[in-house]
Amino acid sequence: MTLHAKLGASGGRTGSLRMVDLFRLHDWSATALGDRDGWSAVLRTTVDMMLGSLHPMCVLWGPQRIVLYNDGYAEILGARHPRALGLPTEDVWPELWADVAPLIDRTFRGESLAFHDQPFTRNGFEEQVWYDFAYSPLRDEHGEVMGLLNVTSDCTARHCALEQLRESEAFMRDVLVASNDCIKVLDLDAKLVFMSEGGKRVMEVSDFGAIAGCPWPDFWEGAGNLAAKEAIASAQAGVASAFQGYADTMKGSRRYWDVQVSPIIGADGTPERILSISRDVTELKAAEEARAVLAQELAHRMKNAFAMVQAIVTQTLRQAKSMEEGRAAVSQRLSALGRAQDILTRSNFTEADIHDVVATAIEPHRVVEDRIAWSGPHFVLTSQQALGLSLAIHELATNAAKYGALSNEAGRVVMVWKIADGAFAFDWVETGGPAVDPPGTRGFGSKLIERIVASYFEGEGRLIFDPAGIRFRLTGLPGGVASEA
Question: What angle do CA 327, 329, 330 make, to 5 degrees?
Fold first, then answer.
């Protein structure tokens, strides 16, 4: 609480008489002013003006600074009223006199003083109010200062409104700083006028002055530039709109933005400026594009998978001797295909390590340990190569279990692969099984591993019916290089 605010602090008004009555009834002869009839014309005129005013006023008169005041000021005096009337200021405000006296003396020397937004507690309880005070010298007919007129005004409403405005402005500043949206104000010609602190951050703007006044649509590229110009035209017509597009930050970072453009309506009801709020949705856009690519890829892979299933079923049933034989063969081949798909699922259908493919494909046939072995370097196969090799191993293992090295108690199977000079070679070798007789005709299994699977590696597949054991060699390009069907 300032010194001048404290001059008005204290409890509520006491007594029911108006100040004009109190002035009439007061024993002025007992005061330093003397009988009222003997007052100077200046004092009488000032007091009459004061008593007739609705503004809180007080007069400090003469060397003793005698206190005179009106009804409005009585409200400010509170419990000091009506005792304060006709007393020296020092007696009314003894606790403040040492601080107040120099300021009062300045006015008595002819200086006018004003104090604004002075806070204090009024009416004897915690009611926070604010007042403006103006001290003016009162001069007699000779020009000498004889008194001081204090005109006060309750500025609580104004102060509170300004305080709320300051709080609101501070809040909005905090919001603009915290927001990751790029909030901009444009003039009606679409030139940059303002950019939020958060906007400068996401747009990587180090000096807004360097871009202030620039045409905002120029920041957009391609279709985004046309969309920005259309949005500006809509805002100029008083209509809000939205669009999305690419625009680089000031440091050249490519960003994709979701933009809202709205007119700022003036007092006359027409647009006077334009508000643009841009949100960085680059990651969302990338995710949408990735989902679109994935959907296309899945559609492609499903088409390939269905084609493979159709070929397996058609060719197997065509060469089966009975429906039961055909049903069993189809079931086994589709199971092998399903196991290969499980591997691809773990890698988002894009690729698989050859060791995982081999181990998964041969697992159902590893009835006895140490009869099946494999070795070779780790590298990835494309999805089609993984499916093809898995089916080839299934066909070879099924044939070995029925007629070859896995049909007795002593036979063995070894798989070996390598990459040399950019070429891939895979060998299946059976030993220890019954003597092999070349078949009179080639079935679907043979065509599958020699032609279809080989095509996935852009190479060649060769099935050799050696009397000592069946051998199969697949050559071609290593994984990730062969083109997919």
Answer: 65
Whole-structure pTM value: 0.41
* CATH number, domain with residue 47: 3.30.450.20
Burial of 147 (0-12, 13-18, 19+ CB in 10 A): buried
Q: Is residue 481 assigned to a domain?
A: no
Q: Tell me: do 388 and 275 sit in the same domain.
A: no
Q: Which pLDDT tens digit goes with each residue over 342-385?
A: 655 554 556 788 998 898 888 777 766 788 999 999 988 887 88
Please give the residue that has the higher pLDDT: either 446 or 431.
431
Per-residue burial over 241-266, b if 16 or more Cβ lie within 10 Å, else e, is bebbbbbeeeeeeebbbbbbbbbeee
Tokens (6 digits) for 166? 């300051």
CATH of the domain at 398: 3.30.565.10
Sheet harboring 128-139: ordered strands across? 10-11, 113-123, 128-139, 145-154, 57-61, 66-69
Do residue 272 and residue 389 come from a single domain? no
Mean pLDDT, range 83-107, rounded to an integer: 91
Task: Give domain status of residue 171, yes or no.
Answer: no
Instruction: Write the pLDDT tens digit of every residue in 117-148.
Output: 766 655 544 567 777 888 999 999 899 999 99
Count of Cβ atoms closer than 10 Å to residue 416 Cβ: 13
pLDDT tens across 32-49, in order?
Answer: 999 999 999 999 999 999
Residue range of the domain that includes 153: 3-160
Tell me whether residue 168 is in a domain.
no
Residues in the chain: 485
Report yes or no on 76 lying in a domain: yes
- DSSP structure string for 232-276: HHHHHTT--EEEEEEEE-TT--EEEEEEEEEEEE-TTSSEEEEEE
Tell me, yes or no, whether 296 and 388 share the same domain.
yes
Residue 434: the pLDDT is: 93
- Among the candidates 237, 255, 280, a domain finishes at 280
d(CA 474, CA 271): 74
Place of tokens 């004897």: 124
Choose the final residue of a domain: 251, 280, 309. Answer: 280
Percent of the chain with pLDDT over 90: 42
CA 132 to CA 158: how far, in whole Å? Answer: 11
Residue 473's Cβ-count burial label (10 Å; 0-12, 13-18, 19+) is: middle
Residues 100 and 187 in one domain: no
70 with 199, same domain: the answer is no
pLDDT above 80 (res 456): yes
